[in-house]
Amino acid sequence: MGGTFDPVHYGHLVTAEVARAKFLLDLVVFVPAGIPPHKKGIKISQGTDRYMMTVLATVSNPFFKVSRAELDRPGPSYAIDTVEYFCTTFDKGTEIFFITGADAAVEILTWKDAKDLLKKCGFIVATRPGYSTGELKGHLKEAKLYSTHCIYTVEVPALAISSTDIRRRVKQGEPIRYLLPRNVENYIYKTGLYCPNKITE
Ligand code: NAP
């Protein structure tokens, strides 16, 4: 499950759980992106904070794990490197699915070594309610030409929640309760994340 997770929220957690149940996955590994390749020049929170929040959010679910693979790898976080890492980490023959959001997956054919990537893992692409799937379907249809695995899309109503909206809410002093786990909310307030003028202890 790849994402920037800045911050992780219930939309991500529901997506992971829906994917786990629907596709009978043994494990969902959350992989916070180190340096997202398409976000050069865009300010994102420190990897340590995004990792900590993801651990806090997933700690109570034995089927969820968090990996530092991309955070500890220098350079841009390409999905191909991450999937190759997991291919060597898991038992031989393990089937891997890359779970991510539709806005990221729509550009999948522009990702580094996309054709190789599509031969190494399946994809589970989560869409938000109201997301217009026309463009996505076109891109995924083309991606399927190179893929030797399955590419699924799932609509996840909880993805009406977005990290961008949560960051904006914190900055403007609006509530974020019930959008993300309470311990992640506490972490955000304790550290002053997304609130540049806040003085932390
Ligand atoms: P993003 O641009 O921050 O997010 C795109 C959209 O997808 C946002 O609406 C986001 O919602 C949603 N989203 C992201 N991750 C999700 C998830 N796991 N489950 C459900 N919705 C999700 O994209 P990103 O997070 O940086 O990238 C997503 C993944 O694609 C990462 O693992 C990244 O490394 C990979 N990627 C790889 C390449 C490459 O290899 N060249 C290029 C681009 C992306 P929220 O903002 O609410 O999360």
- Per CATH, which architecture? 3-Layer(aba) Sandwich
The CATH topology: Rossmann fold
CATH C-level? Alpha Beta
Provide the succession of SSEs. EHEHEHHEHHEHEHH
Q: Helix count, per DSSP?
A: 9
Overall 3D form = globular
The average pLDDT is: 94
Structural class: alpha/beta
Largest sheet: 3 strands, parallel
Helix content: 40-55%
- Model regions low in confidence, pLDDT < 50 over at least 5 residues: none
Q: State the total count of DSSP E strands.
A: 6
Cα distance, first to last residue?
A: 33 Å
Q: Estimate nothing, just give the exact number of structural domains.
A: 1
- Approximately how much beta-strand content do the residues carry? 5-15%
What is the gyration radius calculated from CA atoms? 17 Å
CATH homolog superfamily: HUPs
User: Major sheet: order of its strands?
Assistant: 1-2-3
Bound molecules: NADP nicotinamide-adenine-dinucleotide phosphate
Tell me about this structure.
The protein has about 200 residues and is of the alpha/beta class. It has a single domain, classed as Rossmann fold, CATH 3.40.50.620. The protein is about 40% helix and about 15% strand. It has 9 helices and 6 strands. The protein has helices at about 10-20, 45-60, 70, 80-90, 100-105, 115-120, 135-145, 165-170, 180-190; strands at about 1-5, 30, 65, 95-100, 120-125, 150-155. Strands 1-2-3 form a 3-stranded parallel β-sheet. β5 (about 120-125), α7 (about 135-145) and β6 form a beta-alpha-beta unit. α2 (about 45-60) packs antiparallel against α9 (about 180-190) and α4 (about 80-90) runs parallel beside α6. The mean pLDDT is about 95. NADP nicotinamide-adenine-dinucleotide phosphate binds near residues 12, 103 and 162. NADP nicotinamide-adenine-dinucleotide phosphate binds near residues 33 and 99.
